[in-house]
Amino acid sequence: MTTLCIKTSPVFEPLLAKSRYKGAWGGRASGKSHFFAELAIERCLMNPGTRIVCVREIQKSLKESVKRLLEDKIVAMGVGDQFRILYDSIITPGKGTIIFEGLVDHTAESIKSLEGFDLGYCEEAQTLTTRSLELFIPTIIRKPGAEIWFSWNPRDDTDPVDALLRGTNPPADATVISANWRDNTFFTDESESVRVYDQINKPDRYDHIWEGGYEPQAIGAIWTREIIQRNRVTKTPEMSRILIGIDPPTESGDNSDMCGLIAAGLGTDTRGYVLQDESIRATPEQWGRAAVAMYDLHDADAIVAEVNQGGDMVRSVIHAIRPGIKVIKVRAKRGKHIRAEPVSALYSLNRISHVGNFPELERQQCLMTAEGYEGKGSPDSVDAMVYIFLELFNKMTKKARNNANRPVRATNQYRPHDGLQRGNKNGR
Q1: Which residue, of 92, 103, 126, 246, is most buried by count of CB atoms within 10 Å of its CB?
Q2: Which residues on adjacent β-strands are paired with residue 24?
């Protein structure tokens, strides 16, 4: 009996257990595709007669499929004598098969040809449409014991596969892991040189390419990934003032907006620091307790909250949990994007840093444009953060806001005819 030894990065070990849905998301050079390709070959060897369909949303030719990768793995694993490579498919032990399809070409009728397959492997799954998933998943999963694997680099949380496996209600029998370059035991020096190059030369794209972050930003965004990444730090100086920001939803429930909950402060170096994002969808009591917990964790000085919708509701909620906490009330008079502009300017001046990574906050920031918010829902995390920094940098942002509405020539310093007047007065 021949024993096959497959070296696997520890990050993928949860996917070795049986599960109806398996997903691995992350950036470049994480080893996702290599892991699933090796697992597929192992499945065929362990279970003769296995039938696998490898799919993408659009597959104009076999060059766009994982066929070549599977062929290379068969050779590298030394099991070429047990597989037969054909032009458009691979015959596996026990007269099984591996085929390659583009889901966009299927209809409700043609998808039935995939009934009875043991495994559906979706590569570049971020491109799959809702229609394709609705056709494909029921077709594969109806066979007892069948599995579907997904590998993807996220573009946005609205990608159907992201919503399915990373959303609020993933399938019960789903195992999903995040894998990036640092998790790859076999990460090469060549890949490292490319990564470092992109980190230096493509800071606005780096997080998406290598860390599995969402696509960078909307056109005309007032924040950019480059600016956020440039000022990212891992620790803070001594802090002189810390605030907790709350952007409360107008209602609570499964379909309500999130409650923005941000901790941020001002260092003794006079720079701003974002410390924590705990934005949640919750009842007033729940987000109130979360805010007080953040207040205690950071030994904060006060809570700053927007009160347009709820009036004194926020202060009442906080004081019901912890009487005496100082609550600074903010009444928003202009649009979210207008309020945000002075704070985005502080980022551009390298005055604000993120202590670590805050994916949802940063996603919202990079969808805020001079014309408004380009994202889905409300930018609650951004709003809560903006309230804090408008308070912490009060004089600077107030001056910026006032100047934005003041014509330049209306200042007292502008006297274009002073010279002529003085000349007449002196008789010259």
Answers
A1: 246
A2: 151, 177
pTM assigned to the model: 0.57
Same CATH topology for 17-183 and 216-405?
Answer: no
Tokens of residue 284, six digits: 């007033």
For residue 376, give the DSSP letter. Answer: S
Give the CA-trace dihedral at 177, 182, 183, 186, to 10 degrees. Answer: 140
**Rounded to whole angstroms, how far apart are CA atoms 210 and 67?**
24
CA-CA distance, 228 to 352, in Å (whole number)?
9
Q: What does the alpha-carbon distance between residue 74 and residue 172 come to, in Å, rounded to a whole number?
A: 33
H/E segment holding residue 345: helix 336-348
Minimal CA–CA distance to 303: which of 285, 291, 313, 312?
291
Mean residue pLDDT of the chain comes to 87
Cα torsion 270, 275, 277, 282 to 10°: value is -100
Q: What is the pLDDT of residues 286-330, one digit of tens each?
A: 999 999 999 999 999 999 998 766 557 888 999 999 999 999 988
Which SS3 state, helix, strand or coil, does residue 152 take?
A: strand
Alpha helices for 57-202 (secondary structure H): 67-76, 130-141, 160-166, 189-201
Query: What residues does 149 pair with on adjacent strands?
Result: 22, 121
Q: Where are the domains of the chain?
A: 17-183, 216-405
Residue 117: how many other CB atoms lie within 10 Å:
21
Residue 402 exposure: Cα atoms within 13 Å on the Cβ side: 8
Distance (Å, whole) CA 386 – CA 363: 15
Report how far apart the first and last C-alpha atoms of the chain are (Å, whole number).
111
pLDDT digits (tens, 9 = 90+) for 261-285: 999 999 999 999 999 999 998 899 9
**Alpha carbons 243 and 268: distance in angstroms, whole number:** 15
- The secondary structure element, H or E, covering residue 267 is strand 260-267
348: enclosing H helix or E strand = helix 336-348
Provide the residue type at 62 as one letter. Answer: L
DSSP codes of every residue in 60-124: SSGGGSSHHHHHHHHHHTT-GGG-EE-SSEEEEGGGEEEEEEEGGG--TTGGGGGTT-SEEEESS
What's the CA gap between 4 and 157, in Å, rounded?
A: 38
Q: Which residue has the tokens 């039938």?
A: 51
Amino acid at 222: I
- The tens digit of pLDDT for each residue in 323-336 reads 999 999 887 666 77
Which run of H or E residues covers position 369? strand 368-369
Q: What fold, for 17-183?
A: Rossmann fold (3.40.50)
What CATH number belongs to 216-405? 3.30.420.240
pLDDT for res 425 = 40
